[in-house]
Amino acid sequence: MSCRRSEALAFSLVTEINHAMARLVDIWDSIGIMEDQRVERMQTVKKHIDGLLHSMIMEEEALRRRIRADIITSQKQLETLSLELSVEPYKLEEDLTVLQMEKNLRCRVESLLKEKNERLRELSDLKKQDEELCVTLCSTPYYIPSGSVPSQTQLQELQEHVEKLSKEKENRVKIFSGLREDIRTLMDEMGHEPESSLERESICPDTDIFLLTHDNIKALTLLLSQLEMKKESLISARDKLKERATSLWNRLSCPEPEGEVFREAVMSTLSDDIRRWQGFVEHLEELQMAQLEEVVDKVRQELVILWDKCMFGPEQREPFSVHFCDNHYTEELLALHDTELLKTKAFYEAAQPILEDLEKWKRNWALFQEFERKAADPNRFSNRGGSLLKESKDRAKVQKLLPKLEEEMRGRVEEWEKNKGSSFLVQGQRIMDYISSQWEEHRLQKDKEKNERMTKKTETSLFKTPTKRALGATYTTPTPNKIKKTPNQLAPRTATVNSISSASSSSSSSTTFLCVPGRPQLSAKRSKTTEASSGLRVPLQEFNSDKKPIPMSYSAFTSELSRKANSDGFLNSTVKDML
Length: 579
Fold this sequence. Notes:
By secondary structure, the protein is mostly helical. It contains 18 helices and 2 strands.
């Protein structure tokens, strides 16, 4: 349709020109212009028309050339932008006119230029933040080549880098704030005045005075540790002065009102507190010089108590004991005693874990010995209420604990001796030798008790051993049967006992021995021959006769046996031994 409109427009243009020329001819005719003039005028008209058309043609040709040049330029820009922005090259559609090609390329170039400018602006903002953070943290900035357009990946990484530095800055600010606050607090507690530039800057209220670098953090951390060590040193010095003042106070038995002032003094800073305690110590030392003899005696008492706590033996006490005999009370003598007291206190503090373990061992050792004593008591089986079970459990617990404690002490003592280069002595012995000696004493005591029991048992056995009966004497053993004895049967038994008594009394020994019923005699065959020849009945023969004994319980048996023994004149102790 557009082609038809242009063709119609061109046809109308030709028509208009023809009408215009026709009118010009009519005008020329009416005027009476000659042919030559008409030709000249027509050539002028033709010239104007040709010039106008040529001018228009030239302009349109220039436009076409310009559009083509713009297309080429846009294509080059697109190639460059595609490379800079790391995007795919732009591809034109087919069958496009020059004007459409130029428009599409121009729009694409404008879009890429806009994206490029946005990236560069974002890069500029992020780099500015990155540089500020890197200066504050003394870290390396994120590298992007200058003059280049960053890719989306690079911008994302730079953004993450800036966020990471921002978080690191927040953390370091917290660390710096904490360190500076701790340093300020320590200085206030100690009454310490800043001496170096670092100390002055650390308590300065200006938060931007420090760069948040690792080196500065290390410097502040080191300063804090130094101040903490100094505080510990001041506390130790104050505690020593306080301990010294307390020791002097107890030695001198100062008046109570002064003691109240002594205890209720208000502490400001550690330095002021140390000066205050130092003044107290100096004051008490002056008082001490006025009571030198009494003070030395009290120090000696303290020293003896401490020696006992440390379980020192005579050899360990001997080197200093010579000063106990020195009655020439001087400041030098007091200084010697104080030095020995401090030395012993230091030893006690260092050895306290081992000494506590030893005390624990001694307590359990005493329990062990008590259990051993109870185990040898025959009356313990008469206890009721589960006491034997509890005693058994406690005994097993102690027996299990003792080796464990000894092994722990062995490890501690070995470490002590390795570090100190000397033996750890208890009552003049090495601690494991001391424990071994306790076990050896226990073993010897057990052996002694055992031998005593064996001796007693042997003596009892000898007492119960029968003597050799005289010829014709008869010994009968009561049997637990219920056969009724006749007077004729009782007579031989009485005779037997009398014969035994007469035989034993006629022997050289003054000790009377009784035969234990139920035991075979050394002259068994001989006795049987004698009994057979005498025609007397032996109770054992009665028990083994054809008459079966009436069944009875064990308690009935023992009661019957006791009854018969009593009725037959046997000793109650003999029956008890049988039971």
